[in-house]
Amino acid sequence: MRCFLERFCFPFAVYDLETDSLAPKRMPLGFIYTMNVTKEGAEKMGYDYFLSLNTRFLEMLFKKPYNLLSYDTYQFSDYSKYKSDIFDEKHKAEVRKTQFPKDLESAFEIGSKIARDALLK
Question: How many whole angstroms separate alpha carbon 115 and alpha carbon 121?
Fold first, then answer.
């Protein structure tokens, strides 16, 4: 993902001390990070730090992106087809049932904010 972001941003980068941007406008962005790890696990592994680097990088060229972090996601449609002994499929299914609708609503809200921000100049 980091390579993609660098290639995406490269045409807009200006190498000066003011961190200017060649982007025609400070366009709104949104990122949805889906991850198999729990929120506590992500915090232990420092995900917040690494994802904040993406945010800071993009904010220099565009606008500060809206971020949604979706934790403990349901990884497979059929866990029996994969070697995944460390995951409790019932727990994953319960998280999908209870949390996924909330994450979808949050994603919709981010999309609405991006659309609104795009209209503002």
Answer: 12
> Is the overall model pTM greater than 0.85, yes or no?
no
Average pLDDT over residues 57-71: 91
- What local confidence, expressed as pLDDT, does residue 67 receive? 96
- Among 79, 69, 78, CA closest to 99: 69
Question: Sorting pLDDT into bands at 50, 70 and 90, what band is 8?
Answer: confident
Angle, CA 104 vertex, CA 106 and CA 81 arms, to 5°: 140
pLDDT of residue 121: 61
Give me the residue label for tokens 């490269």: 10
Which residues face 67 on adjacent strands? Answer: 31
Tokens of 60: 């220099």
